[in-house]
Amino acid sequence: MDMKKRIHLELRNRTPSDVKELVLDNCRSNEGKIEGLTDEFEELEFLSTINVGLTSVANLPKLNKLKKLELSDNRISGGLEVLAEKCPNLTHLNLSGNKIKDLSTIEPLKKLESLKSLDLFNCEVTNLNDYRENVFKLLPQLTYLDGYDKEDKEAPDSDAEAYVEGLDDDEDDEDEGEEEEYDEDAAPGDEDEEEGEEDDEEEGEEEEEEDISGEEEEEEELNDGEVDDEEDLEEERGQKRKRELDEEGEEDDD
């Protein structure tokens, strides 16, 4: 697929000014030049033209908001001075796998004052003595060269990975928020306390029942005791009455 047709498909019924990212990887360029890309893409921030057979970036339109430019696996050997004019706010530039052989080819990049990351993997220039040290001297605004800083510390993850990590962080934040809401409604400690209170209430009720039953038994015992005492008293009275009658009978006989 040629580059013009690919750009048309990438628009998907949008206007060029609505596009912030444009990926044209593996399509065909005409005579090694960028075609179909115009100044109308004024909001474009990310442009990828990997393996499209580019030999020059001369046809690149004015893209003031472009931050990241992927040009890897092409046949570019020079002409980088146009980038400072066409993409003055560029922060990331990938020229890996191109025909860049010496430092003078990348020297014009020092005009890109915002450039923080430059990749030159698989370019002949990386075989030069003191390559990294010389590139950092030539382009003092750089933070990362081929994915590492001056102290050989690796650069952060790519934009895509960082974006995914951002989504994970948001999910974690949401989960934490849900936990906090749950804690506010009923903290684990509160649940334990409530269960403890319920158990105490049940035990209290059982004790009260035992106390009541104990009191009832005592009352029954007292009542039984009183009944027995009354029966004994009646029996004694009966015996006493009998004795009196017997004595009266003996007196009558006499």
Task: Describe the 3D structure.
With 254 residues, this protein is an alpha/beta fold. It has a domain at 3-145: Alpha-Beta Horseshoe (Leucine-rich repeat, LRR (right-handed beta-alpha superhelix)). The chain has helices at 3-11, 82-86, 103-106, 131-138, 159-185, 188-253; strands at residues 21-23, 46-48, 68-70, 92-94, 117-119, 144-145. It has a six-stranded parallel sheet with strand order 1-2-3-4-5-6, with helices on one face. Mean pLDDT is 80; it is low at 159-168 and 178-187.
Key terms:
254 residues; alpha/beta; Leucine-rich repeat, LRR (right-handed beta-alpha superhelix); six-stranded parallel sheet; 7% strand; rod-shaped; Acidic leucine-rich nuclear phosphoprotein 32 family member; leucine-rich repeat; histone binding
Strand and helix layout:
Layout: H1 3-11, E1 21-23, E2 46-48, E3 68-70, H2 82-86, E4 92-94, H3 103-106, E5 117-119, H4 131-138, E6 144-145, H5 159-185, H6 188-253
Parallel strand pairs: 1-2, 2-3, 3-4, 4-5, 5-6
Family: Belongs to the ANP32 family.
GO biological process, one term: regulation of apoptotic process
Main location: nucleus
Secondary-structure arrangement, i.e. CATH architecture of one domain: Alpha-Beta Horseshoe
Total count of strands: 6
Helix content: 40-55%
CATH superfamily of one domain: Ribonuclease Inhibitor
Instruction: Say what the CATH topology of one domain is.
Output: Leucine-rich repeat, LRR (right-handed beta-alpha superhelix)
Major sheet, described briefly? 6 strands, parallel
Q: Can you give the mean pLDDT?
A: 80
Major β-sheet strand ordering = 1-2-3-4-5-6
Structural class: alpha/beta
* Tally of contiguous helical segments: 6
β-strand percent reads 5-15%
Q: Return the string of H and E elements.
A: HEEEHEHEHEHH
Function: Multifunctional protein that is involved in the regulation of many processes.
Pfam families: LRR_9
InterPro entries: AN32, Leu-rich_rpt, LRR_dom_sf, U2A'_phosphoprotein32A_C
Subcellular location: Nucleus
